């Protein structure tokens, strides 16, 4: 069976840990402030704020405060008093107990689509991109599916202050020109909030 066509970005999908470590898929609950004004979608890169709350990363090239990947949320609906679990956090939700599920392991590996710099148009990188760094491309997610539209840039290099390190390509996504439209990445050392010398 042919590998599905990668028609657009879908955020960061956790798949493993670097070095063959045991991957349990564990997450940490981190609060989102009531009324927080930016939607967060499944697969978005998120950051810690002063005060211990969570928000979506907005800096594409130097996201040194990223704490992990958003994998849904839960909160009590003030109208019905029922606990809701959702694929994404809708902007400006008012509730006193909003909690995000975050994969916050700095050693986590993620599958992600490659897009042309500054766009959501699928692009690709060659095998030579392995070991290089790439910036995030952040666009609004889908309120229909709840999924992120985040990706990484096809423009790669050896820059020292870039959030993502490419550790492999997804071989099944090679196209006619020899480029790969999906890659495996991890947070670059020193770019994850748990690995920086300065706290939030």
Task: Write up what this structure looks like.
With 200 residues, this protein is mostly beta strands. It folds into two domains: 96 residues, no CATH class; 76 residues, no CATH class. The protein contains no helices and twelve strands. The strands form two sheets. Strands 2, 3, 4, 5, 6 and 7 form a six-stranded antiparallel β-sheet that branches. Strand 5 and strand 6 form a beta hairpin. It is globular and about 55 Å long. The relative contact order is 0.24. The model has no long low-confidence stretch (mean pLDDT 91).
Which features characterize this protein?
single chain; 2 domains; 6-stranded antiparallel beta sheet; 5-stranded mixed β-barrel; 34% strand; globular
Short structural description:
By secondary structure, this protein is mainly beta.
Task: Give the topology.
Layout: E1 13-17, E2 28-31, E3 45-48, E4 54-56, E5 66-76, E6 83-86, E7 99-103, E8 108-115, E9 133-137, E10 151-157, E11 164-169, E12 182-187
Parallel strand pairs: 8-10
Antiparallel strand pairs: 1-8, 2-7, 3-4, 3-5, 5-6, 5-7, 8-12, 9-10, 9-11, 11-12
């Amino acid at each position: 069976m042919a590998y599905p066509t990668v028609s657009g970005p879908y955020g960061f999908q956790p798949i493993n840990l670097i070095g063959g470590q045991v991957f349990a898929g564990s997450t940490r609950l981190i609060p989102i402030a009531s009324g927080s004004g930016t939607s967060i979608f499944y697969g978005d890169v998120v950051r810690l704020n002063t005060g211990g709350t969570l928000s979506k990363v907005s800096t594409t090239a130097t996201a040194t405060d990223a704490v992990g990947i958003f994998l849904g949320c839960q909160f009590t609906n003030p109208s019905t008093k029922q606990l809701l679990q959702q694929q994404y956090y809708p902007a400006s939700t008012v509730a006193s107990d909003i909690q995000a599920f975050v994969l916050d392991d700095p050693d986590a590996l993620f599958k992600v689509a490659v897009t042309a710099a500054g766009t959501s148009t699928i692009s690709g990188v060659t095998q030579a991109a392995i070991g290089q760094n790439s910036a995030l491309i952040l666009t609004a997610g889908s309120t229909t599916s709840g999924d992120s539209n985040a990706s990484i840039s096809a423009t790669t290099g050896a820059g020292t202050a870039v959030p993502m390190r490419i550790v492999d390509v997804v071989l099944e996504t090679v196209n006619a020109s020899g480029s790969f439209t999906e890659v495996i990445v991890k947070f670059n050392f020193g770019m994850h909030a748990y690995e920086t010398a300065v706290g939030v």
